[in-house]
What does this fold into?
Amino acid sequence: MPRWILLRSLVFHGLLIGSVMVVVILLVLVSPFGLEGTKDRLARAWAYFNLVALKWICGLDYRIHGLERLPRQDDTVIVLAKHQSAWETIALRAILPLRQSWVLKQELMRIPIFSTGLKQFSPIPINRSAGRRAILELVREGLERLERGRWVIIFPEGTRVAPGTRHTYAMGGATLGAKSGRRIIPIAHNAGVFWARRSVRKRPGVIDLVIGEPIETAGRSAPQINSEVEDWIETTVAALPGCHSERTADRAASPLASEKQS
It folds into this structure.
């Protein structure tokens, strides 16, 4: 891989770390005054800044399919998204409505400075080794966030996975959907093709992010919901550039493929 890709990637990483420090300072300054909306806007501005920096420094852009499928902020929903890269943790903050609460691994809340910023947005830290207890905690905290008008963002696989592979889809998000009756928005993308997990390098190109139709949860069981979410995400991801896998190749055509034909 050309050396300039690594150099540009390092420049972007330095800028990313610096921007985290700046936004955390700003969040701490406004925190005593409440100003929840201001904090959410600061987070969105930070995300947009880094997406623009990523485009101009590393040549990595993105396009969104199905943006019109997102409901309004006051129609609180649960978002279940594919997790391949650090990119989507930035992009979803910019793309989705302002008021968001993320389900994240407990270890992230122990990182100095970074955790200070996370705490400003009512996250839901989960001990992934706690099994059913973790699901019950997610549901309890998730219901409270939804009642407060915050969207709940979840990566059901629990960790970043390489393109063309998958992990088990945990039941937490689907259980929250079944208990709350709130709709689920599935999201697929191929960010890992350009920004791989545990890699500094950012390959130039265009990331495709696909927003699915809202999935109804009222009156349905968590396993039914989870299966529908997994099928849609994995089928859609498999149709994206760089994400082909034998396991999903023989499935029905993805919504993205249909969109391109229409």
